[in-house]
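ok new one. same drill as before - structure tokens go in, u give me an amino acid for every spot. 464 of them this time. try not to just spam alanines like last time pls lmao
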């Protein structure tokens, strides 16, 4: 397994066959990247349109745009939470125990506390016979002690009698009440826990950077900590921009589309570990738009905006520019090459703009936003794990652009993985995306992968 999203500049041109996606013919030594089409190249029933007459002023690689975002996003200061509220977050302090765990010598299982020398060499044919002088169970109890030839019946977690140095499991005995026959003698120290065996006073119980799950909550509770310092969930505001958008409860008219991005991206941000707030469709009036953006900058650690932004005269771009420096770029990726990033407002809050087309928006989230959220959470693993899989059918990709295709990856009966791209020209892209369990990643300098070839696959596991 490898990590995706690392690296630097565009890789050199490989010795591969380039496809002229405008004509469907083979070309050699193609001189420049072809702008990608807004449907995936695997839709062989559709032919992408010819490239625009003018290239954008700035063309950036995926790594360049990602590095700018990851360099700029801050890590929120640690906060103190109740241990149950800290579940899923990273510990931000070294928790030192002031208690010994266990706090007293105790039995590790149900059986009989005894002296090891009294049961040494016991067998089924020649058992050791001990007098049972009492019984202890887990809970408050007074100290007991034993001497030669004596035993105390104990339950798991019960205080060990003074003088006992072994617990004989009940299944190794005849379970006698007055006298017990021991059929096997364990070694000294077996099946018991000494004071401080688990955690000694003054030692670290939970380290900085440890993910807090059920086991860590158990340990924190045992050492007496009901609150703990953690890396908080970043607050992410999600907005959608576009005059064509209507809310989910409004039937769309001609030329209108439902705002699915604010819902999908808020869900994706929550899955990545953020505290996501769906602000919805941005206002169409300039002054009100400015107020909404400023209020989101005040309450958020990161602002995420999905929209189709015009190259000139776009009101959202102009209002964003009034709040700070915002860089809109053409990124060498498909789908959705138009991306933007800036730090705006009084507190220089990171703002990420992704394409308005829903499939491209979620792809951009996976590539740029999810790693930023995980960085803000303090995670060491920023990117999803990737695997190499066998392509079940030929794949096409525009030269010079990193292609992300939705697919289904599965285990191959002979080992490894096999991946199949989803959909054709007759299937809605949202339905295709909903069926996918992975993204197929094709590098910028690869235009064609034959059936049976190896390709990089990013499984899309919830919470992964």
């Amino acid at each position: 397994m490898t990590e995706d999203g690392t690296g630097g500049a565009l890789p050199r041109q490989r010795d591969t066959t380039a496809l002229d996606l405008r004509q469907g013919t083979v070309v050699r030594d193609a001189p420049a990247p072809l702008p990608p089409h807004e449907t995936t190249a695997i839709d062989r029933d559709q032919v992408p349109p010819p490239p625009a007459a003018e290239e954008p002023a700035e063309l950036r690689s995926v790594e360049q745009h990602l590095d700018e975002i990851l360099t700029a996003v801050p890590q929120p200061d640690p906060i103190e939470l109740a241990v149950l509220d800290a579940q899923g977050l990273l510990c931000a302090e070294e928790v030192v125990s002031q208690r010994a765990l266990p706090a007293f010598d105790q039995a590790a299982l149900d059986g009989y506390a005894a002296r090891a020398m009294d049961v040494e060499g016991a067998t089924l044919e020649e058992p050791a016979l001990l007098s049972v002088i009492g019984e202890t169970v887990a809970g408050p109890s007074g100290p007991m002690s034993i001497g030669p030839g004596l035993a105390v019946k104990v339950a798991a977690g019960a205080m060990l009698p003074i003088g006992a140095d072994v617990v004989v499991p009940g299944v190794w005995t005849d379970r006698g009440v007055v006298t017990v026959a021991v059929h096997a003698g364990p070694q000294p120290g077996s099946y018991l826990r000494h004071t401080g065996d688990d955690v000694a006073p003054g030692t670290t119980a939970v380290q900085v950077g440890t993910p807090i799950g059920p086991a860590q909550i158990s340990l924190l509770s045992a050492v007496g900590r009901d609150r703990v310092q953690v890396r908080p969930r970043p607050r992410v505001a999600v907005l959608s921009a576009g005059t064509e958008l209507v809310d989910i409860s409004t039937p769309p008219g001609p030329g209108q589309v439902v705002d699915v991005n604010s819902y999908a991206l808020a869900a994706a941000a929550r899955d990545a570990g953020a505290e996501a707030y769906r602000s919805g469709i941005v206002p169409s009036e300039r002054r009100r738009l400015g107020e909404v953006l400023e209020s989101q900058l005040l309450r958020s650690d990161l602002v995420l905006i999905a929209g189709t932004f015009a190259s000139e005269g776009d009101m959202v771009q102009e209002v964003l520019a009034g709040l700070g420096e915002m860089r809109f770029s053409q990124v060498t990726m498909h789908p959705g090459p138009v991306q933007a990033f800036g730090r705006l407002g009084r507190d220089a809050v990171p703002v990420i703009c992704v394409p308005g087309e829903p499939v491209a928006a979620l792809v951009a989230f996976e590539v740029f936003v999810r790693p930023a959220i995980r960085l803000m959470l303090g995670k060491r693993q920023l990117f999803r794990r990737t695997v190499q899989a066998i392509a079940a059918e030929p794949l096409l990709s525009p030269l010079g652009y990193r292609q992300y295709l939705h697919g289904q990856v599965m285990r191959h009966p002979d080992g490894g993985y096999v991946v199949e791209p989803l959909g054709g020209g007759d299937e809605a892209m949202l339905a295709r995306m909903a069926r996918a369990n992975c993204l197929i990643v094709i590098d910028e300098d690869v235009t064609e992968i034959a059936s049976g070839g190896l390709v990089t696959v990013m499984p899309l596991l919830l919470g992964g």
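The chain has eight helices and 31 strands. and btw The radius of gyration is 32 Å.
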